[in-house]
Amino acid sequence: MNDRTLPLHASPSAMDWALPYASQRSAVMGRNIVSTSQPLAAQAGLRMLLAGGNAVDAAIAAAMALTVVEPTGCGLGSDGFAIVWDGQELHGLNASGRSPAAWTPQYFAERGGMPEKGWNAVTVPGAVSAWVALSKRLGKLPFAQLAQPAIDYARRGFPVSPTIARLWALGAAKLGAQPGFAECFLPGGRAPRAGEMFRSEAHARTLELIAATEGEAFYRGDLARQMVAHAQAHGGAMALDDLAAHRADWVGTVSQRFGDSVVHEIPPNGQGIATLMALGMLDAVGVGQQPLDGVDSVHLQIEAMKLALADLQQYNADIDAMQVAPADLLHADYLRGRAALIDPACAGDPSCGAPRPGGTVYLAAADASGMMVSFIQSNYMGFGSGVVVPGTGISLQNRGHGFNLVPGHANEVGPRKRPSHTIIPAFAMHADGTPQMAFGVMGGPMQSQGHLQMALRVLRYGQNPQAAADAPRWRVTGGKGVAVEPRFDPAVVAGLRARGHEVTVEEGNGVFAFGGAQLVLREGGHYVAGSDPRKDGCAVAF
Fold first, then answer.
1. Are 473 and 538 in contact, with CB atoms under 8 Å apart?
2. Are 440 and 447 spatial neighbours (Cβ–Cβ below 8 Å)?
3. Distance (Å, rounded) from C-alpha 69 to C-alpha 157?
4. How does pLDDT run across 13-39, given as a tens digit for each residue?
5. Distance, CA of 31 to CA of 525 (rounded, Å)
6. What SS3 class is residue 311?
7. DSSP β-bridge partners for residue 527
């Protein structure tokens, strides 16, 4: 029976999708594992492992599927990053896109600033190039095979989950008037409700063309021409040369020793360096001696993160434009100096230091051979720019909004430049050089803060990955401001306020505010995975 033959009384619209009772889930274990933010995408990855593929094949298949089943966080026009342990060495891939050649400070000054919506928020999309680069260098299965689950979901349809349906409705209210959005994402003039089937034949055809040409059609062929024509029709500056010039770069990683582990992040333009800086500061102040969820530990975490974020805002940019080298921001003496600014009894409002000159989906996969993948792709703010190229299913990110117009700033907008980026995959190695954990947290500027909290819980305090994903989280909001989830211990909230923190308990949707985490930890000859209930997190294994 397919959805077309369901009797009327089986309509999902009458079902109550509320979850009124507290629940918990166990960590998932296996020798092969895929952990994603959506169960159907996790199954897509598992299909590749069962077909003889490796963890990279699984990650790519899951990533492609997520563009269909979780369009509220990513799409064919997203950016992507990856860290991969291939069994012998660690690889870092930056597939974020650069700005169009026509983007200058004057271009945006004449238009009133950096927009959040529309074609003038869109940098060259890089996710497709990430899939191709990973497959060519590290995959086993034919690239076209990896796209098949996503094609099937797009063509045959899938039931929209309650979490995605809620985010879809919010995105529609904000972006429904953007060119191409309604045609693609509002069948019948509205966002699909929870339990309703959604199909996109255009998305399926585009995936088939990407698969058949290994991405060439997207950057230098028919799909590129359609994107540029749509941009020009709606006041955008994207040109064929901008797409054709795009490349995904193998960039290695930057890292920070943290106890008996070494945490790795992608180098700037990603924000992962803020996690590493904060971890270095926390080591310097001896974090780990206090109870994990007590006010003393949480206060130190918040203070270290504020110092790191102040530096991030000042210095982080396209690495070719940075005025301070990542190594200087991570220098042990500099981090000790920054840590010395932390008052254990009082909240601070830090500015940047002076080192020596110099709305996302995350998934993790691992296989029995020892290969582990940490992968992330994102539209940035939910559906991104809201722009969808008609007849293609290509929804486009709004990464251009990450630039600024501050004269001389490292992250000032400019031609063919990568903006400071929020999405970051993370990876932890044991100090002896063996792999330990692939992990990540979705959610814009929450990501580096979430990485800090996951690393601290698992690597310093020994929590299992599922407990780390479940735990209530905090988020620095600027100045002395801190937001916490409603499940936070009221005594800790009171203790933070007593130290001068301006604490807000944020009700509502934790997906937006506090992100969603996925973690895969290697334990001897098998893996242990945690997935986040704030989204539709799911880990599958065999």
1. no
2. yes
3. 9
4. 578 888 888 778 899 999 999 999 999
5. 7
6. helix
7. 30, 522
Distance between CA 136 and CA 214 in Å, rounded? 9
Which single residue is written with the structure tokens 């209530």? 472
For 422-454, b where at least 16 C-beta lie within 10 A, e where not — what string? bbbbbbbbeeeeebbbbbbbbbbbbbbbbbbbb
pLDDT over threshold 70, residue 508: no
Q: Is 163 a catalytic residue?
A: no
Kindly tell me if the per-residue pLDDT of 4 is higher than 60. Answer: no
**Catalytic one of 360, 422, 434, 504:** 360
Shortest CA distance to 308 belongs to which of 268, 352, 342, 360?
A: 352
pLDDT in tens, 329-353: 999 999 999 999 999 999 999 988 7
Length of the chain counted residue by residue:
542
Distances (CA, A) of 312 to 67, 162, 427: 29, 35, 20
Nearest to 180 by CA among 325, 324, 388: 388
- Region 149-163: mean pLDDT is 97
Residue with tokens 């991030």: 312
